[in-house]
Design goal:
Nucleotidyltransferase, domain 5; about 600 residues; DHBP synthase; globular; 3 domains; disordered N terminus; alpha/beta; five-stranded mixed beta sheet; about 35% helix
């Protein structure tokens, strides 16, 4: 920061704008925080390229940052102190990665993975992007905002900060929670050489309890994903969770994983024999599955037993954290916090009484964490965290939609009265139609929560297959989720817990499973979204209208996209998916679109 910038930065008259950057190689995102206004969005939405791999290495999306500022009516920025915060400590990362790259071929996970020749393609692919991409981070850090975006004539003070990766995860988990104090658990692939972290958050401080960097549950999950014939680089760990329900317990496979980990409180070690672990595993599963092999059920037992081991490991770590007696509240973040099946078991198995997982617990969420950390750390002792809505992204351009509808080629109804709209759509859903539903600001994170959703009646037994095959174009074993009115949660789920971001999986009660088969997974569970009127009024009223017609207080809800693509971002994206899939109707704001040309 220059002397003039430092002088301006000390000027208390300038309002502060915090720009957070999730600038990992995958899932880049930007967040803007100014007073109580918040915007957060992944770059994949703009590019419509899933996970936006390496975009910051090639071209950092200044357009996305400018768009974010425009959504908060902050563009052009004037008379402001801009704090630009990355979600990595690059100085530390340089040293860690230099050491890591020198040791990779000699010890640790990579030697374990590459010992067997069949694992070399995985190693080569993952190592290639590490070697190719990290130097770009070191030499051109994207958190250094392009000067042309903030001209001196606008009275701008610029300041750059580097937030440790796991601390950014922790800040996302804490500052989006309702907790004044809590234990924080972070589990992911790795940060600056760190794979697991525990903090005690109190008095607006993050006190580090324990941290380790040698053994990674996140990377192990990636390797198992590849063994099953899926791509960890494309984020297909989701498929392991879905497939696990179709497998069965196999003592030999389970014991191989169970014997891998030795716990010592919050610390754990992965003990294995380099020459036998993966050869033995592949022998038990009949060899690696090739991605083009249509027989995916061949690896269902591996998915089942690894998922069981993973869940038990996460729960054991959470149990050890709870046994410290520091808090009854747990905030959980990092990429492993996307494993909803494990998340649903934490409260019933630990001393914690409340669990918060943010809507974007993985690396994209670090953009919000970096911005909120820099904003909140100066608030002093006793500053209280507050609940943050997940609806932090872009709005649809309604003027653009109206212009398209004005050409007369699309049939539509305009229903400006919300009650009429909800009653009409509830009737369509009751009639077995599949409806695209777009309202307000987009959700931040990977899951649609009623603003960028595909909705359907959960009662028809064939509805899941219809959506997977005709709309999503994805595998038939992939489950679909229920959005349920909070007041009915205990009627439908055993040991019901609020799940506002579809972040945990719970067991359905036996008495209701046959009434809503489209959202009941193979193992009798559902990854639920709790819906309250104060959280999303229009979505709540739609489900309520459906309940009044059918007696069922929940809807099938899946993200508005097709397999391999991000959730739709623009009016054009939404209309394209509508007319090229088996969707029956599309709602954008107050407009109900129908197929067939207007007369």
């Amino acid at each position: 920061m220059s002397d003039s910038e430092a002088s301006n930065a000390d000027n208390g008259d300038l309002r502060r704008i915090y720009i957070g950057h999730a600038n990992t190689i995958h899932d880049p995102a930007v967040a803007i925080v100014e007073e109580d206004r918040v915007f957060a969005e992944g770059f994949e939405r703009h590019t419509q390229c899933k996970r936006a791999w390496e975009i910051q290495r090639l071209w950092y999306s200044w357009r996305a940052i400018r768009s974010a500022l425009m959504h908060l009516e902050l563009w052009p920025v004037k008379d402001a102190h801009v704090v630009s915060a990355t979600s990595w400590d690059f100085d530390l990362l340089k040293e860690v990665e230099k050491k890591r790259l020198m040791e990779f071929a000699e010890q640790g996970d990579v030697s374990m993975m590459t010992h067997h020749l069949e694992m070399e393609p995985i190693f080569n692919r993952q190592m290639a992007w590490i070697l190719r991409s990290y130097p770009a981070h070191f030499n051109a850090q994207p958190h250094e905002i392009a000067p042309e975006m903030f001209q001196d004539v606008h009275n701008i003070a610029m300041e750059t900060k580097m937030v440790n990766h796991h601390l950014a995860h922790a800040a996302t988990a804490v500052y989006t929670s309702p907790f004044e104090e809590c234990v924080v658990m972070i589990i992911d692939g790795y940060g600056e050489g760190t794979t697991t972290s525990f903090y005690h958050y109190h008095d607006n401080r993050f006190d580090l309890i324990h941290q380790q960097g040698i053994y990674s549950l996140g990377l192990l999950y990636s390797y198992i994903t590849e063994l099953c014939g899926f791509s960890s680089l494309e984020g297909e760990e989701w498929k392991i969770m879905g497939l696990a329900a179709y497998g069965s317990f196999q003592q030999e496979i389970y014991d191989l994983f169970k014997g891998l980990v030795v716990f010592d409180g919050l610390k754990f070690e992965m003990k294995y024999d380099v020459g036998t672990f993966f050869p033995t595993l592949m022998s038990l599963m009949g060899g690696m599955r090739h991605p083009d092999d249509p027989n995916v059920m061949r690896v269902a037992d591996l998915a089942h037993n690894f998922q069981r081991f993973f869940e038990e490991t996460v729960v054991q770590l959470a149990r050890s954290a709870g046994d410290l007696g520091l808090s009854k509240n747990l905030a959980y973040g990092g990429g492993c916090a996307l494993n909803s099946s494990a998340n649903g078991k934490i409260l019933e198995s630990t001393a914690f009484e409340r669990l918060h997982i943010p809507s974007a617990p993985a690396d994209d969420g670090c953009a919000l964490g970096a911005a909120l950390y820099e904003k909140n750390r100066g608030n002093g002792v006793g500053a209280r965290a507050r609940f943050t809505s997940p609806y932090l992204g872009s709005r649809m351009d309604m003027a653009r939609l109206e212009k398209m509808l004005g050409f007369g080629g699309i049939r539509y109804h305009h229903l400006p009265d919300e009650k009429d709209l909800c009653q009409e759509v509830a009737g369509l859903l009751d009639g077995g139609n599949i409806v695209g539903w777009i309202q307000g600001r987009a959700e931040f994170g990977p899951r649609a929560l009623g603003n960028r959703s595909i909705l359907a009646d959960p009662r028809p037994a064939d509805m899941k297959d219809r959506i997977n095959s005709r709309v999503k174009f994805r595998e038939d074993y992939r489950p679909l989720a229920p959005s349920i009115l909070h007041e009915f949660g205990g009627d439908y789920f055993e040991n019901y817990q609020e799940s506002p971001y579809m972040e945990r999986t719970l067991k359905f009660r036996e008495a209701v499973k046959d009434t809503i088969p489209a959202v009941v997974h193979q193992n009798g569970t559902g990854r639920l979204q709790t819906v309250k009127e104060e959280w999303n009024p229009r979505y709540y009223r739609l489900i309520r209208a459906f309940y009044e017609k059918t007696g069922i207080p929940l809807l099938l809800n899946t993200s508005f996209n097709v397999m391999g693509k991000p959730i739709v971002h623009s009016v054009e994206d939404a209309i394209t998916v509508f007319f090229t899939t088996g969707l029956d109707y599309l709602v954008i704001g107050d407009y109900l679109l129908m197929k067939g040309r207007a007369s």
